[in-house]
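Feature request, filed as a ticket because there's no other form

It would be nice if the structure record came with a short human-readable summary line next to the tokens. Right now we just get the raw output. Example of a typical job, pasted below so the devs can see what we mean:
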Amino acid sequence: MLSLDKIYQASFILKKVLHSTELVYAPKLVPGCELYIKPENLQVTGSFKVRGAYYKMSQLTEEEKAAGVIACSAGNHAQGVALAAKANGIHATICIPAGAPISKVEATKSYGAEVVLVKGVYDDAYARAVEIQKETGKTFIHPYDDEDVIAGQGTIGLEILEDKTLAGSGNFADVDAVVVPIGGGGLISGVAFAVKSLNPNVKVYGVQAAGAPSMYNSMKEHQQLTLPSVSTFADGIAVKHPGDITYQMCEKYVDEIVTVTDDEIATAILAMIEQHKMVAEGAGAVSVAACMFNKIDVKGKKVVCVVSGGNIDVTILSRVISRGLLMEGRLLDVTIALADKPGELTHVSDIVASTGANITTVRHSRSDIDMDINSCFLTLQMETRNKAHADEVCAKLEEAGYQIVSSH
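Raw output as currently delivered:
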């Protein structure tokens, strides 16, 4: 059974391996709210996962350590298990889907783990890991549905309440709410158990991606449900089925679960980069997104958002930033129809310049089947200050007599 003593024990054991992730005050992210970030994206291996993996391995018998451990993951859990195994002198085998990003595969190997690439998706890697476990007798390190793993993740809850950044009443920080990402539920189970055990008045909110709402749906229906599929770039929380232990703990200790869209997550990632020079992955940014987009009532409250990881694939980071700029109205794509004659492009450019917008890309098309034969479509991408500024640009173009075919 999970206990507060077990979480305190985990905290003591983990001190020698963890980076200190003290709270970061983030006053600009959500106006009207005293918001703090728990930056686990700055943790060793770039995520919180090392906490649960390391504590789990510290509790193995000498015989179990000698037999080694096995896990399956396409990302943060793999690296957490690999590092924890190396630190404890344990041989680790990690099954990873063959399509996983090369950077994550190489990072896992760099910690000394044996990597087994499995054709297919996560479920295929999991099935292969189970086979190897049966063949070798290795200990399976589950990414979330294990009480020792949950206890390790629960140390984050202790650190939040004990953080000196928050002026507390009594022995613990005076915080109103803690917001936590949810995939399989291991992180929020540990955090919620620790926080509620020490201060039942603190609200604990969970956040899932709208394209992978397994725990959200399960809590809503009060039964464990399995999603037919998941669709989100927040791959770290793209889980079809919540854990057995974690579902029960969420039912008991979590106040509410909400969802955020991929566009909202992208906006949160961009905001953290710009305002705090902090890179979060999609799964890590959902907590901030929930506060930024009013999914949770945080006005006038002291709130801590757990940013669970920062291992975003750099190949999609530029796309995420572009989507965030579009969401904030700072990147405007507008297509206008105009007569195909000299001077028109100059006239359009003058109008845009008069508003203070900056054109970054120009595309000119004469062959669209929907246009008049003596017309053309002009598509401009430009930098704008916000949605109001973008609307001003479109209004000025229309006032000059240009027809806007599309804008976003």
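Something like this underneath would help us a lot:
The chain has a mean pLDDT of 91.
The first helix runs from residue 4 to 14.
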